[in-house]
Amino acid sequence: AAPKVPAGAIALGLALPPILTYVFAVLFRIDHVRLLRIAGILFGLAGVLLVLLPDQSLPEPGMAPWLLMAFGGPLCYSLSNVCIAILRPPESRPIPLTCGVFACASIMMLPVMAVTENWWIFDATMTDGDWALIGNIVSIAIFFVVMFEIIRMAGPVFFSISGYFGTLIGLGWAALYFGEVPSSWIWAAIAILFLGLFLVNRTSKPSSI
């Protein structure tokens, strides 16, 4: 979906994990139903609809299905946050868990690389793209170590607040590298999403609902 829609619109989806993570946390009974957080979820839904529904929010109305597909990423990301909190072995450490993630990912990608014949082997003619890929691998490894530790210490909803920064950084890179100027609908959606995020992450007493 990335080549089909503006990068800034995809970055908007990075604001969804805190809201979706809270939804999954309630469904799996590791968090409580809270009125302020429910209001935040509704604001988040309104922000997404503000991008998907108006014809003027995206450069082309036909981009909406692709953007909806791109939002599947934050959905899976949010579910993984909660699964880590639930399924993580009690005595496990972040570095071995990260090594396990990389090992499983390598095994899963092996048949894909075999079918597509798209093998990547270190050789003497490393390009800038190769070095960028290596740098990305290192940064992702650090990210997973930090993620496992923060979820252990503070829980999945708190960790998902990183979506705040992802949205702002994504919009900034989209403007810097692609010259994208978000429409007024996008800016309105961002404001509503951040209001929803604020409400979802506010501390409040559990509701009796």
Automatic annotation (TrEMBL):
Please identify the protein, giving its name as recorded.
EamA domain-containing protein
The EamA domain covers 65-201
Which chain regions cross the lipid bilayer? 6-28, 35-54, 66-87, 99-121, 133-151, 158-178, 184-200
Keywords for this protein = Membrane, Transmembrane, Transmembrane helix
InterPro entries to which the protein is assigned, alphabetical: AA-Vitamin_Transporters, EamA_dom, EmrE-like
> What membrane topology does the UniProt entry give?
Multi-pass membrane protein
GO CC: one term?
Answer: membrane
UniProt keyword annotation of Isomerase present: no
Q: One Pfam family from the UniProt entry?
A: EamA
**Cellular location of this protein?**
Membrane
Q: Which organism is it from?
A: marine metagenome
User: Transmembrane helix: is it a keyword of this entry?
Assistant: yes
